[in-house]
Amino acid sequence: MAKAKKKSKPKVVKAKKASKKASKKPAAKKTNGLPSPSKKPFGQAGLALEGVRILDFTHVQSGPTCTQLLAWFGADVIKVERPGVGDITRGQLVDVKGADSLYFTMLNHNKRSITIDSKHKKGKEILDRLIKECDVLVENFAPGALDRMGLTWEHIHKLNPRMIVASVKGFGPGPYEDCKVYENVAQCTGGSASTTGFRDGPPLVTGAQIGDSGTGLHLALGIVTALYQRSRTGRGQKVLCAMQDGVLNLARVKLRDQQRLKHGPLTEYSQYGEGVPFGDAVPRAGNDSGGGQPGRILKCKGAPEDPNAYIYFITQAPVWDSICDVIGEPTWKTDPEYSTPKARLPKLNAIFARIEKWTMSKTKFEAMDILNKYDIPCGPILSMKELAADQSLRKTGTVVEVDHPKRGKYLSVGNPIKMSASRSRR
Ligand code: COA
Q1: For ligand 1, is residue 82 a contact (CB within 6 Å)?
Q2: Is 169's C-beta closer than 6 angstroms to any atom of ligand 1?
C-alpha cells in the first residue's frame, strides 16, 4: 500500500494545474451518469484499490469474479495457476481453436498470471515470498486443499500478519462442509431453485450465476471491509463466503414468505387467485413479482414466434388509475371489484389477460415508452443479442470491446460499479 503513496506524488502536482482550469468551467457529466472524477488528490488516474496486491489462487468462476472486481478498482492481481494444467476454464467451451476460451478471458482479462507448483519445494519458497509481499490471498479450492499445500492460516499469518485470507467454499461449517460445489448445486441448496419455476413444473435454476458470481461479489465486499479494518488494527483476518449462504442472502424474500405462510396464504401469489391451497413450504411462483406488487411477464407484438417479445408489467397500486386508462378500462378505476389492491388479488389472471391484450398490440419497446410516461413499472425482456448491441451499455463501459492477440475483438462485461473518483481498469 505504501507504493501507492509514492506513485501519487506527481499526479497531485498535475492536478493543481488542472483544477485551476476546471474552476472556470463546471465539470462535464460523464457518460456513466456520475460527475467527472475529482482532480484532487489523485486526478484522472485515480484507482480506489491502487497499491493493494492480491495473490490470486482462484479458479473456475466464483473466485475469479471476485478478483476481477478488485482488479477493476486498481488492485494488482497475480493469478497463480498449476503448471501444465492452468485454470480449467481456459480449455472449457472453446470457440476459437488455439485461444483461451471466453469463459476464461471474460473473468481474467485484467490480471497478471504466473504458474507455480505449490507442492514443489521451489514453488513453496516463491509462494512464501509472495505471501510476504501481498495484502490479500484469495482462493476457492476444495475444502482442505489450501491446508494440504501447507498454506495454513497459521503459516500465512506468521509470514505476514497483515495478510487477509479470503475463501469461497460451497458450504459453511456443518454437515456438507467438505463437499465440492458448483453453481447449480449452490442455487439448489441455497433456496433459489425450490422457489424458481412454475408451480406445476420442476424446480429451476436461473441463468444469472448467483452461486458463483454472486458469491464472488460477496467475497469482494468481505475483502474490502477487512482491508478497511486492517487500516485501523494493522492485522489481517480470514474471510469466508459459502455459496449456499450467498444464494440464500439473494433469495431472502423467499425466507420472508416462508415465515408469512404461518399467518395465511400468500395473497400476491397467482395460486391464491386460482384457489390452489398452499403447502408448508414457499411454492414456485412463476413470474409473479417478489415485492408484493403483482407483476407478470406478458406477450407483446411478435410473441410467441419471437421468443423474447415479452415485457414485465407490474400493476403497482399507486399507478392503477393510469394502467386502467392506458389499457382502455377506465371504469376499473372506480369499480369496487377492481379499484383496490385487495379486490384485485383474486382476479389477477383475468386482469393480466386484459393487460396482455393491450401489450400484444405493441412491441416491447413501444409498450415500454408508453408505460414509462405514466411511471408504470415495466421492463422489456432483452435478449443477449440486444444487450450486446446496446450502445448505451457500451458508452457506460458496462459492455466493453476487448482486443485479444489470438481471438481478435470480443465483448466482455465491464465493471458494473461506477464511482465518480475512481476509474475502472480493464
Ligand atoms: N500447484 C499444485 N497443486 C495445485 C495447484 C498448484 N498451483 N492448484 C491447485 N492444485 C491442486 C490442489 O491442491 C488440489 O489437490 P489435492 O486435492 O491433492 O489437495 C487439486 O489441485 C484440485 O483442486 P480442487 O480445488 O479440488 O479442484 P477440483 O477441480 O477437483 O474442484 C471445485 C473444483 C470448484 C469443485 C472445488 O475447487 C471447490 O469446491 N471449490 C470451492 C467452491 C467453489 O468455488 N465452487 C465454484 C467454482 S466456480
Answers
A1: yes
A2: yes
User: Closest Cα to residue 197, out of 288, 277, 281, 268?
Assistant: 288
- Residue 212 annotated among the catalytic residues of the structure: yes
Reduce the DSSP state of residue 409 to 3 states and report it.
strand
Query: Parallel, antiparallel, or unpaired for β 76-81 and 112-115?
Result: parallel
Q: How many whole angstroms separate alpha carbon 66 and alpha carbon 305?
A: 39
Closest Cα to residue 251, out of 243, 241, 261?
A: 243
23: Cβ–Cβ under 8 A, 6 or more apart, which residues? none
pTM, rounded to two decimals:
0.90
According to DSSP, the residues that pair with 311 across neighbouring strands are 298, 380
The model's pLDDT over 237-264, given as tens digits with 9 standing for 90+, comes to 999 999 999 999 999 999 999 999 999 9
Instruction: Indicate the helix (H) or strand (E) that contains 387.
Output: helix 384-389
Distance from Cα 114 to the centre of ligand 1, integer Å:
17
Among residues 419, 400, 416, which one has the least CA distance to residue 109?
400
Joined together, the cell numbers standing for residue 212 give 458463483
- For residue 82, the CA-to-ligand 1 centroid distance in Å is 10
Give the angle 417-93-185 at the CA atoms, nearest 5°: 70
Give me 407's grid cell.
481471438
- Contact criterion met (CB below 8 Å) for 107 and 89: yes
Q: Does the structure show a pLDDT above 80 at 325?
A: yes
Q: Which helix (DSSP H) or strand (DSSP E) does residue 79 occupy?
A: strand 76-81
Q: Is there an atom of ligand 1 within 6 Å of 60 CB?
A: yes
